[in-house]
Amino acid sequence: MSTPANVLILSKDLLFSSQLHGAVQRAGRQGRTCLSQPGCLQQLEAAQAEYIIIDLAMPDLNLAEVRVAAGPDCQLIGYAPHVREDLLAMAQQAGCDTILTRGQAAKMIEKLLRPAASSQMP
Questions:
Q1: What is the pLDDT of residues 36-63, one digit of tens each?
Q2: Contacting residues for 102 by C-beta, under 8 A, at least 6 apart
């Protein structure tokens, strides 16, 4: 039996989601890529995720529905191209916990997913 994913990546972009998946693994977490919102919601029914990394440019994305299904303890990290200010603003209104440009996501996901340094102190 495989370990359930505690990080879901909701994206149709296989190349970028592969890069994000590598960052998830380097942060010491289990990740799974969902290519559609229904697939993501199905994963959430099977096991609760700690984080969902969301490509805000996904077609037919209903971020409010993902927020509700994820629950209050799940952190939503949304990203979009920096030129898509409309998507970044929509993510803020829909309750994303962290909103990044695509470039920031590439650089910061691993750090965001690492356990806090304070929890590792004696």
A1: 999 999 999 988 899 999 999 998 999 9
A2: 16, 79, 80, 81, 82
Q: Does domain 7-120 have CATH number 3.40.50.720?
A: no
How far does CA 118 lie from the centroid of its chain? 23
H helices of the chain, in order, are: 14-26, 37-46, 63-70, 85-94, 102-113
Inter-residue contact 54 to 79 (CB < 8 Å)? yes
The CA distance from 83 to 120, in Å, is 38
Look at residue 92 and give its three-state secondary structure: helix
User: Which residue ranges make up each domain of the chain?
Assistant: 7-120
Type of residue at 108 = M
Q: Is the pTM of this model over 0.90?
A: no
**For residues 19 and 37, is the Cβ–Cβ distance under 8 A?**
no
